[in-house]
Amino acid sequence: MSQEAIVLFAHGARDPAWALPARRVAAEVQKLRPEASVSVAFLELMAPSLAEAVDAAAAAGATRLRIVPLFLAQGGHLQRDVPVLLEAARARHPGCRIELAAAVGEDAGVVHAMARYSAGG
Question: What is the domain class of 4-118 according to CATH?
């Protein structure tokens, strides 16, 4: 039986409070997927890094790892930086299947939720 880990991947900021929404999302994901290990990682300015989160998940026995970018779109970081990070992670953990989800902002349900919120209802 494989163990699954889910890493919510956000940009990061200097202000520690910036990470609170990502951590709230992680808590909700954990409720939805109690059998999975759920964590948050950051591209820059905050810890853990994506590499650190992947290494920790693999060390804890994860054999399947889903990385979910908490980004609105597949911009430069997801097109240029993340593939390099994933290639390195896959090389370090060949026994772990690592998949990258699309940016959350590209999901129709997320777009609808943001539109409903923006419209005031």
Answer: alpha beta
